[in-house]
Design a protein that fits this description.
By secondary structure, this protein is an alpha+beta fold. It has one domain (3-171). It has helices spanning 97-100, 130-137, 144-148, 162-171; strands at 3-10, 28-33, 59-62, 65-68, 73-82, 91-94, 111-113, 117-127, 157-159. It has a 6-stranded antiparallel β-barrel with strand order 1-2-5-6-9-8. The chain has a two-stranded antiparallel sheet with strand order 3-4. The radius of gyration is 18 Å and the shape is globular.
Amino acid sequence: MIYCDVAVVQARELWSTKEEVHLRPGHHWLFEFGDAGDGTCFATLENGKKEFTLASRKWVDYKGTRFYHGERAMVIKRWLHRVDEDASGLTFKEWDPKEDADPEQPPVAMIANSSELRAADFKLKELLPPELEQAARGGMRTRGAGLRQLEGMGPARWRLEQDEDNDFRSRCE
């Protein structure tokens, strides 16, 4: 059983029309924190600081995201998207920019605004691909790490518990 440390941000827009099937009040996205190069997940700005210093009611567009005074740009290692085939919206896979991004648009910045952070420091359970799950139930005696190295089993998937999803949704507008 492998776990993934993730965090939740408020979703203000949809990635694509495919995401509409999962749209409900309190819509949110999951991600894994990245490293900004100094052991933190907060990007260092051009002025050498970690947070934006702006006048009242002023904002700045930083890599396609709006920031106000005192906010920080969180570096994202990877986004986790809900899988289309799970109508509950509780199963996730790593977002693949090559598959899902518009090649006509500039690359997606792997950042999020700290003001949108709703939860952190929780774990997702990794799901075994159906082929491996069946082998595991069939009595195959081997360590999970060795079993996961089989090729062609598809991308890793994670499951969010319903209670956690409800809690996160209640924290989102």
